[in-house]
């Protein structure tokens, strides 16, 4: 049996920000709490939202005390601000951190306690009520947070999540025009994050024909457009638009099929060393797939086709290795470091990273190839040395 979940409404395409008042009318709401990090505010993207709201006669407040890779206390402050307000819906605009804060605050508005009470690994409470309606608007083509029920938070040594169907957005509004001025470094990191969602969903033990179809198309869109989006930026709106579509459908795929080893090993990099999530995924991506490819050979061949590195007449093994090499080349081409040493990690840190990563059992269980602590350590060691 296969199930598939998504937001009630997905509105995507350039200029769709203008549909915000219609969505507020559909939800029968009048005053928004807008969650956005300071960078999104300074870039003028929040002003684009508030202009649309004001023209429609809708009220709003703005909450911007948000940091990348948010810890629990930052999330709790955002939740408390909402509980003390008189708004009746939530808008999240920005990257994954802002969207995660927005859906967490909207949900916990209707549930007692702190964010830590609902964490996957250590929480003792279960979400019972939906809370306030929420509209999520990404400004990067990467995290897929607008179409998932997952919110990720930084702990002292690793990361943990809140996940529940009641966290899902009422509307995901994906307007590629909001990504046109995104800096190259963020475009690269979030773009590889989206690609990671697609490839991990594709080989997941929970994959279905529907998630596979979405994942493959996301791979094609992202691999064919990320280099142009990174290096040509606002001068290539077509590449930006295709990246937005790729990120959206990758998000739908991984939300339903799940991610596994890359994310499991990336979480401790963020927790212990504060490496941004997209870069954590990117530096590990080819090394994890160099480990798992023998367990999913047929799918690796299809990945080679999606990446346009498939060679007719050679063995499936060779095409699988071509796909792994394509992952490495892509990360390198968009300017992300390809070894852990480049991020200042020392060899003595690898054992601790391995011990933290093995705790991510929810993620590792989806892998087609099992992991031991020694397997994870070997992957970290390869990522530390890098490839020639």
TrEMBL record:
Domain Alcohol dehydrogenase iron-type/glycerol dehydrogenase GldA: 7-175
Protein name: Alcohol dehydrogenase class IV
PANTHER family: ALCOHOL DEHYDROGENASE, ALCOHOL DEHYDROGENASE 4
Record family assignment: Belongs to the iron-containing alcohol dehydrogenase family.
Residues spanning the signal sequence: none
Residue span(s) of domain Fe-containing alcohol dehydrogenase-like C-terminal: 187-384
Keywords recorded for this protein, A-Z: NAD, Oxidoreductase
Gene3D superfamilies, per database record: 3.40.50.1970, Dehydroquinate synthase-like - alpha domain
SUPFAM superfamilies listed in its UniProt record: Dehydroquinate synthase-like (SSF56796)
């Amino acid at each position: 049996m296969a199930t598939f979940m998504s937001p009630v409404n997905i509105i995507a395409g350039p200029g769709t920000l203008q549909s915000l008042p219609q969505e507020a009318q559909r939800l029968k709401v009048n005053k928004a709490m807008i969650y956005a990090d300071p960078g999104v505010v300074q870039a003028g993207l929040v002003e684009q939202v508030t202009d649309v709201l004001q023209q429609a006669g809708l009220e709003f407040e703005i909450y911007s005390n948000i940091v990348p890779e948010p810890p629990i206390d930052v999330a709790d402050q955002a939740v408390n601000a909402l509980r003390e307000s008189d708004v009746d819906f939530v808008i999240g605009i920005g990257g994954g951190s802002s969207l995660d804060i927005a859906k967490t605050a909207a949900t916990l508005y209707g549930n007692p306690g702190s964010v830590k009470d609902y964490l996957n690994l250590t929480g003792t409470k279960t979400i019972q009520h939906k809370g306030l309606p929420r509209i999520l608007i990404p400004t990067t083509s990467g995290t897929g947070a607008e179409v998932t029920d997952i919110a990720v938070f930084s702990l002292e040594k690793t990361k943990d999540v809140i996940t529940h169907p009641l966290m899902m957005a009422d509307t995901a509004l994906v307007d590629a025009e909001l990504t046109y001025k995104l800096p190259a470094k963020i475009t690269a990191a979030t773009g590889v994050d989206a690609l990671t969602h697609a490839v991990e969903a594709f080989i997941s033990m929970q994959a279905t024909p529907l998630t596979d179809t979405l994942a493959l198309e996301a791979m094609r869109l992202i691999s064919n457009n990320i280099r142009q989006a990174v290096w040509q930026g606002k001068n290539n709106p077509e590449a930006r638009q295709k990246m937005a579509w790729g990120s959206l459908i990758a998000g739908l795929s991984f939300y339903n099929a799940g991610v596994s080893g890359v994310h499991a090993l990336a979480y401790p990099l963020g927790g212990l060393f504060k490496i941004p999530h997209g870069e954590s995924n990117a530096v590990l991506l080819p090394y994890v797939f160099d480990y798992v490819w023998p367990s999913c050979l047929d799918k690796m061949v299809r990945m080679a086709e999606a990446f346009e590195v498939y060679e007719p007449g050679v063995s499936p093994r060779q095409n699988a290795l071509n796909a792994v090499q394509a992952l490495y080349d892509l990360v390198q081409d968009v300017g992300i470091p390809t070894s852990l040493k480049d991020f200042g990690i020392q060899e003595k840190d690898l054992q601790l990273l391995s011990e933290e990563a093995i705790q991510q059992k929810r993620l590792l269980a989806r892998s087609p190839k099992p992991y031991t602590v020694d397997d994870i350590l070997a992957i970290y060691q390869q990522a530390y040395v890098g490839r020639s």
